[in-house]
Amino acid sequence: MHQRVRVCIEIRQLATDDETFLPTLITGDKTSVYVHDPETKRQSSQWKCPTSPRPINIRLVKSNLKCMIISFFDIKGIVNKEFNPRGQTVNSGFYCEILRRLREKVQRHLLQVWRGQTWLLHHDNAPDHIAVHTQTFLAANKFPVIPHQPYYPHVVPSDFFLFRRMKFKLKGRRFDTIKDIQAETNKVLDTFTEKTSRMRSKNRGDRGPLSTCGREVLRG
C-alpha cells in the first residue's frame, strides 16, 4: 500500500509541476477481444410498462474464440496497435519487438516529441514488462518510462478508459471470424481522438488516471 501511494504521489506531482506531462505520455497495455461478448445487464435492459410480461433472460457466456490486442495511446489518439498472432506467447522477447515498432511509429508520426525526446512510456508491471531482457532493451534504446504502482485494476488507464470504451461498443455483437472482430476493433479504436479523451474527462469531472491516483493517496 505504501509503495502504491508513493508512486501515485510522484505521478501527480509530475503532472502538477509540468503542463506538458499529459500530452507527452504514451500508455500501453493488452487485452482480449471475443468473437462474442454478451451485453452487460445495463445494455440489455428494456423499458416495460406495468402490464408487460416479464422478459425472459437467457444466460450467455463469452465465446472461446478470441484474440489479443496490444495498444498504445496518447492524449490525441492511438499511437500503435497490433494483434497478437495466434499461438504467440507474449514474453519479453516478443514485447521488445512491439516496443521497437512503437519507437518507429513515434519517430515517424510524433516528430515534435521525438525531436525533443520528451515522450514518456507508461505500462504496468506485467512479467513481460519488468523482465530483465525488457529492462535492458528499454535502457539501451533510451526509453523514458514513468513508474507504475503495484498492480491494481482501478489505476490501469487502459482498462478503465480505452479498453472499457472499446469493449462496450463490441458487447452483444457476434462476428464470424477472428478477422472480423479484428477489423471491427480497429474501427472502434480509430474513433478515439483528443476530443473524445477531453469529453470523457469532462464528463467524469476528473483527469482520468491521475484523479484515481489522488483517490489512492487519500485512501492511503
CATH architecture classification name? 2-Layer Sandwich
Tell me the strand percentage band. Answer: 5-15%
User: What is the H-and-E element order?
Assistant: HEEEHHEHHHHHH
Reported for the largest beta sheet, the result is: 4 strands, mixed
Helix content: 40-55%
Layout of SSEs?
Blueprint: H1 2-17, E1 25-34, E2 66-74, E3 77-83, H2 92-109, H3 111-116, E4 120-122, H4 127-130, H5 132-140, H6 157-170, H7 178-189, H8 194-204, H9 209-219
Parallel strand pairs: 1-4
Antiparallel strand pairs: 1-2, 2-3
Helix pairs in contact: 1-9, 2-5, 6-7
Structure description:
This protein is α+β, with helices and mostly antiparallel strands and 220 residues long. The chain has a single domain (26-38, 55-209), classed as Nucleotidyltransferase, domain 5. The protein has nine helices and four strands. It has helices at 2-17, 92-109, 111-116, 127-130, 132-140, 157-170, 178-189, 194-204, 209-219; strands at 25-34, 66-74, 77-83, 120-122. The chain has a four-stranded mixed β-sheet with strand order 3-2-1-4. A hairpin with a 2-residue loop joins strand 2 and strand 3 (77-83). The longest helix has 18 residues, at 92-109. It starts with a helix and ends with a helix. The model is unreliable at 203-220 (pLDDT under 50).
Relevant terms:
alpha+beta; 9 helices; Nucleotidyltransferase, domain 5; 4 strands; four-stranded mixed beta sheet; 220 residues
